[in-house]
Amino acid sequence: MNENSQRRDARSVGMDETRLSRVVEAFERQCARGVFPGGQLAVRRRGVLVVDEVVGIARGVRAAEGEPPTPFTPATQSCVFSAGKPLTGIAVAMLEDRGLIDVDAPVGAYWPEFARDGKENIRVIDVLTHRSGLFLRDIEHDWRSWGDWDAIVQRIAEARPTFPLGTLAYQPQGFGWILGELVRRITNKRIERFLEQDVLAPAGLHDLRLGVPAAEIPSLARSYWVDEKPPSLGGEVLGEFEVAQNSPEQLTSVLPGGGTIGTARALCAFYAWLVDGARATDGTPMIREATLSRYVTEAARGTDRVVRVPMVLGRGFALGWFWPHPYGWWRTSACYGHAGNFSTIAWADPTTGCAIAIVTNGNRSATKLVPRCAPIGQGIRAACIA
Questions:
Q1: What is the tens place of the pLDDT at every residue in 337-377?
Q2: Residue whose C-alpha is closest to residue 134's, from 370, 306, 296, 16
Q3: What is the rounded distance in angstroms from the CA atom of residue 207 to the CA atom of residue 210?
Q4: What is the rounded CA–CA span in Å between residue 92 and residue 102?
Q5: Rounded to the nearest 5°, which phi and psi values hold at 179?
Q6: Cα dihedral 367, 370, 371, 373 in deg (nearest 10)
Q7: Which of 205, 332, 215 is nearest to 260 (CA)?
Q8: Phi, psi angles (nearest 5°) of residue 344
Q9: What does the DSSP assignment read for 46-86?
Q10: Nearest 5 degrees, angle CA 290-CA 281-CA 265?
């Protein structure tokens, strides 16, 4: 374990240290084989941090970067991309719990300019479950414009659906832009302020942010494409992948669908917070159990039209299933979480009381997340002996 670890003896929460060590060794072997340049692995059970591992290089992997290799530390922050989507889902859940939003109402009830060009019947729940039919291809690809929130919102209002309403079509960034704008219109707070003031601070959660100041970019882990095949989305090759993922436009913009900055420790703490009932630091529940349950229960299932992989979705969360899944080799239906880009994943396993976060800077095709992550998830389950 790394020398800066905050972890405690796993036996104190009914876990087998030998089996847990094998999980850490598997993570280390992946890095040594070049599956990713570096990363972090964090595991909590019953709120206790039992794994806090770092391996490899955070940045300076390639000579063209013009900087020496910098090792990952537990405090190294990364863009975890769509692994932050559940934060936005929880923001909406909090509004629903307070009676401030009806997720079965049209988006246009809160954002009148949205209700045009075939979007009149799109409901909030359709956006939460990626069934709105919107795939904002032009805006998604125009990453140099992402820093102008008002311009993005205007373009979304003018956009037309790509697919019929009800089609499972994953929105990489559109999910966050639309829901973030709803949060702003309902609360008069920008989504990043609402998350900071109404969710993260009261919950005692730290080191999760939507974007960073430009001066902090050199301290972040870089994102790399390390697969043999070129990166693609829905069969379309993504040009300038590494340029876009490491750009100031990506890292400084408010991207509630795919721009969360944080650490494995922080993501793991978020899921441990959910498993423990989403309570404030004084023990008061911040979201009623019945409301939270609706967000982590299956709402949509099928082969997605954008990413082109099978998905089971809640409201802002990706759920497990019986068959092999990044959360484990089998029977992960109770698990909920989300992947980020092709490199990061974090989830809760309520059957064992565990929260797991794997943050790496190595991107490979989405289909390779299962062989990368399932052994980790399954090994953690096997380590839970009491």
A1: 999 998 999 999 999 999 999 999 999 988 899 999 999 99
A2: 306
A3: 10
A4: 10
A5: -70, -35
A6: 130
A7: 205
A8: -130, 145
A9: TTEEEEEEEEEEEE--SGGG-S--EE--TT--EEEEGGGHH
A10: 90
Question: For residue 307, what are the contacts with CB-CB under 8 A and spacing of at least 6?
Answer: 170, 233, 234, 366
Report whether 6 contacts 266 (CB < 8 A). no
Distance between CA atoms of residues 100 and 95, nearest Å: 5
Identity at 315, one-letter amino acid code: R
Q: Based on the number of CB atoms within 10 Å of its own CB, is 346 exposed (0-12), middle (13-18) or buried (19 or more)?
A: buried
Beta-carbon contacts of 14 under 8 Å, excluding residues fewer than 6 positions away, are 45, 46, 384, 385, 386
Cα(176)–Cα(352) distance, integer angstroms: 30
Q: Tell the residue number behind the tokens 């805006």, with chain if given.
A: 139
318-319 and 336-340 strand pairing: antiparallel
Encoded tokens for 303: 């082969």
State pLDDT tens for residues 35-80. 999 999 999 999 899 999 999 999 999 999 999 999 999 999 999 9
